[in-house]
């Protein structure tokens, strides 16, 4: 019978049985050192999958043949956690050389990062292979930005096979992590009607109005429980305390208000929807079978 290559939750059971436990321990250690890393690792997987599929293309450095996605506007000086992935990869290479892809490590790391901060878990499908190319030009157009409106976010996620509900659930990962002043300055100084006045003035303290002044000062995306994966992000939106414009548009008189309300009332509904959306996201255009390669080092092609 012809065999249809596809992702499978048991992909490494025979070829590298201790891969998943090795990754889990390394991620737990990294997150215990720095809680923010959990958010960074989830975002790394997301920014990988939205640019030519979940193929670890985001990890490639500039070279003679590669224009690194790290230099894209939405990644530069923003995505982080590369050294954690490199460390995991070297540990996995030590036990099973040439077996486990960087693309799969990104997917597993995102799941384990969620669990490490009290978030949901999910059963991962594995068997992705690593790209030999990068998608710098795609990265400029295929990643959401903090200024995006609801229509833009909905169509962008739809183009990747993700529903509006998936998009709102995945946005809920902003229950952890931090954003730089440059990404929310316009919102806190814009005197818009969809921002709580007290919240805006609190955020202004560490984010000066002038461009170039304090651009990299950080604020938590969830002001209530910034290091715990829960549903407070959605409660914040209802109180008009979303940090980014692209957060608050999810609750601003539009079609997604009802989903935000639902998640604000039920952490379990949010958690299960987030898990299934992460599985769907991890299924975006993987390289399988003999496509791509298994990199020895995640930042360079073999």
TrEMBL record:
Catalytic activity reported: 2 a phenolic donor + H2O2 = 2 a phenolic radical donor + 2 H2O
UniProt record, GO biological process: hydrogen peroxide catabolic process; response to oxidative stress
Family label: Belongs to the peroxidase family. Ascorbate peroxidase subfamily.
Name of protein: Peroxidase
GO MF term list: heme binding; lactoperoxidase activity; metal ion binding
Cofactor: heme b; Ca(2+)
Compartmental location: Secreted
Active-site residues per Swiss-Prot or TrEMBL entry: 47
Role description: Removal of H(2)O(2), oxidation of toxic reductants, biosynthesis and degradation of lignin, suberization, auxin catabolism, response to environmental stresses such as wounding, pathogen attack and oxidative stress. These functions might be dependent on each isozyme/isoform in each plant tissue.
Source organism: Vitis rotundifolia (Muscadine grape)
Main location: secreted
EC number(s) recorded for this UniProt protein: 1.11.1.7
Keywords annotated in UniProt: Calcium, Disulfide bond, Glycoprotein, Heme, Hydrogen peroxide, Iron, Metal-binding, Oxidoreductase, Peroxidase, Pyrrolidone carboxylic acid, Secreted
Amino-acid positions noted as binding substrate in the UniProt annotation, renumbered to this chain: 144
Cysteine pairs bridged by disulfides in the record: 16-96, 49-54, 102-298, 181-207
GO terms under cellular component: extracellular region
Plant heme peroxidase family profile domain span: 6-302
Positions bound to Ca(2+) 2: 175, 222, 225, 230
Origin superkingdom: Eukaryota
Chain sites annotated for binding Ca(2+) 1: 48, 51, 53, 55, 57, 69
Cofactor note: Binds 1 heme b (iron(II)-protoporphyrin IX) group per subunit. Binds 2 calcium ions per subunit.
Site (Transition state stabilizer): 43
């Amino acid at each position: 019978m012809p065999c249809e290559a596809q992702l499978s939750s048991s992909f490494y059971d025979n070829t590298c049985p201790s891969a998943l436990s090795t990754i889990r321990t390394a991620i737990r250690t990294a997150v215990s050192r720095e809680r923010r890393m959990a958010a960074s690792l989830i975002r790394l997987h997301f920014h990988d999958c939205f640019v030519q599929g979940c193929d670890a293309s985001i990890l490639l450095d500039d070279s003679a043949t590669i224009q690194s996605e790290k230099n894209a506007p939405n990644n530069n000086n923003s995505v982080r956690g590369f050294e954690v992935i490199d460390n995991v990869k070297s540990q996995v290479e030590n036990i099973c050389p040439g077996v486990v892809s960087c693309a799969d490590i990104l997917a597993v790391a995102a799941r384990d990062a969620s669990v490490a901060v009290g978030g949901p878990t999910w059963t991962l499908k594995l068997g992705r292979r690593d790209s030999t190319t990068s998608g710098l030009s795609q990265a400029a157009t295929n990643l959401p930005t903090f200024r995006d409106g609801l229509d833009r976010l909905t169509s962008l996620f739809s183009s990747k096979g993700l529903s509006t509900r998936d998009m709102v659930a995945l946005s809920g990962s902003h229950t952890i992590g931090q954003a730089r002043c440059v990404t929310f300055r316009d919102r806190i100084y814009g005197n818009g009607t969809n921002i709580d006045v007290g919240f805006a003035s609190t955020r202004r303290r560490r984010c000066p109005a002038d461009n170039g002044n304090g651009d990299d000062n950080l604020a938590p995306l969830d002001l209530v429980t910034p290091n715990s994966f829960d549903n407070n992000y959605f409660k914040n939106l209802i109180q008009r305390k979303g940090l980014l414009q692209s957060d608050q548009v999810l609750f601003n008189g539009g079609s997604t208000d009802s989903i935000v309300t639902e998640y604000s009332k039920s952490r379990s509904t949010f958690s299960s929807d987030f898990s299934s959306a992460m599985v769907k996201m991890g299924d975006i255009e993987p390289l399988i079978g003999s496509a791509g390669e298994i990199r020895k080092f995640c930042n360079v092609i073999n």
